[in-house]
Amino acid sequence: MPLAERIRPQNLEEFVGQKHLMGENKILRKIIENVDEKRRLPNLIFYGPSGTGKTTLANIIANRADMTLRKLNGTQASTADIKQIISETNTLMGSTGILLYLDEIQYFNKKQQQSLLEFIENGDITLIASTTENPYFYVYGAILSRSTVFEFKPISPEEIIPAIERGFKIVSEEIGVKLDFENRGEIFRTIAFGCGGDVRKALNAVEICVLTAGDNKVLTQTAAEAAQKSAVKYDRDGDAHYDILSAFHKSIRGSDENAALHYLARLLAAGDLPSACRRLLAIAAEDVGLAFPNAIVIVKACVDSALQLGLPEAKLPLAEAAILLCTSPKSNSAKLAIDRALADVEKGLTGDFPRQLQNKHFDGDDIKNKGQNYLYPHDYPNHYVKQQYLPDEIKDRVYYEFGENKMEQAAREYWEKIKGGL
Predict the structure, then answer these.
(1) Could you report how far apart the first and last alpha carbons of the chain are, in Å?
(2) Which of 76, 195, 238, 262 is in the most buried spot, having the most CB atoms within 10 Å?
């Protein structure tokens, strides 16, 4: 059995982390402490990264509740497993209620989740579900409406250190030797900071340190190597992927080059070069836009270079692109303009093309004003002539508004001079 299982906390006093939920007088702790024969446990959904205590807390709750505990894992459970649990609801086993702990509920399809609904509704089954993915995307709405969602957060290094110390102590006792540490405090901190808030990963690193301890001496370098990849929490199909991209994008939009470089480093450490390139191009158009139109040209060159170089050298042009975008003036005028235009199109506000813009050179008998009557702008002063381009239904619509930056204000002044003199 892995070390994380062998030393899993058995009561609330041993549980670490999640102080926003489990601290004194916090809501989840009060729910757990007040469960008795009169106050039944509500349906709960625990959402958060791996190794943050979701399964541990579910086990602690099950031990405190006077209910028959059944466990299922969404990655392995079948419809037959669900039917077996449901069949117990009207038996002696289910007389005090069944507490179902459903780990990785996001892997249950809608039909499987629906099969539990009736029994959750009438109280025969109390559900505690855990998921590493956003439950509002993956859990059936009817189950969500009957449950309370609690978000678990990565555990701080300071809170993980006691678990690391306990892990070394237990392994030392199990193998019957006294461990010697090159630098005890430094080793504990290295593992705690390297595990990315995941206690399970920290304890895996502890086991590696002990396994590789020559003459029973744990080395600082070994701890660093065991924990070096743990800090990067990333799943290209999961929430961490979108959270990093969101943080990266918002940092550049907010002109914080240091934060942008941090999140770019996390993307590159995870090997996700395509997502970093795609997001940089989007930011150049969305957030810098017409305030510095050449930004997207430069970013495209950086992206092309990065894709041709590959990692690790790709970090250089991508860092250049990120810093350029952070330090450039910002304008979202183009984004707002196209969003307004799309909104009209989606509402059906389109109308027929003005006759002078149509690609035909003859008129039917029903047309009163014959001839296309298109005015060729290059035949007029300053290459501009006033004529209608939008359909009649929206002929006065304004989508684009000049941004308050030097580039767009110069364009505004130019066109006000040209159009205002007509």
Answers:
(1) 84
(2) 195
Average pLDDT value over all residues in the chain? 86
CA-based diameter of the chain, in Å? 103
- CA nearest 51: which of 199, 239, 232? 199
CA–CA distance, 20 with 205 (Å, rounded to integer): 27
Residue among 16, 65, 58, 7 at smallest CA distance from 36: 65
When pLDDT is averaged across residues 198-224 and rounded to a whole number, the result is 87
Cα dihedral sign, 333-288-308-306: negative
Average of per-residue pLDDT across 132-153: 88
Residue 416 pLDDT > 60: yes
Q: Is 352 helix (H, G, I), strand (E, B) or coil?
A: coil
Question: What pLDDT, on the 0 to 100 scale, is given for residue 371?
Answer: 56
Say how many C-beta atoms besides its own lie within 10 A of residue 356's C-beta.
13
Q: Phi-psi category of 248—alpha, beta or left, where left has phi over 0 and alpha has psi -120 to 50? A: alpha
**Residue of 237 and 167 predicted with greater confidence:** 167
Contacts with 249 (C-beta within 8 Å, 6 or more apart), sequence order: 279, 282, 283, 287
CA distance 152 to 203: 19
d(CA 252, CA 99): 47
Burial status of residue 15 (CB atoms within 10 A of its CB: 0-12, 13-18, 19 or more): middle
Q: What are the phi and psi torsion angles at 175 (to 5°)?
A: -90, -5
Query: Tokens 């702008």 appear where?
Result: 377
The b/e string for 56-84 (b: 16+ C-beta within 10 A; e otherwise) is bbbbbbbeebebbebbbbbeebeeeebee
Respond yes or no on whether the N-terminal peptide bond of residue 312 is cis (omega within 30° of 0). Answer: yes
Count Cβ atoms below 10 Å from residue 273 Cβ, excluding itself.
19
**Closest listed residue to residue 72, CA positions, set 125, 118, 123:** 125
| Per-residue model confidence as pLDDT tens digits over 235-281 | 555 567 778 899 999 999 999 999 999 999 988 887 788 889 999 99
Q: Give the orientation angle of helix 273-283 with respect to helix 315-327, to 10 degrees.
A: 20
Q: What is the pLDDT of residue 38?
A: 58
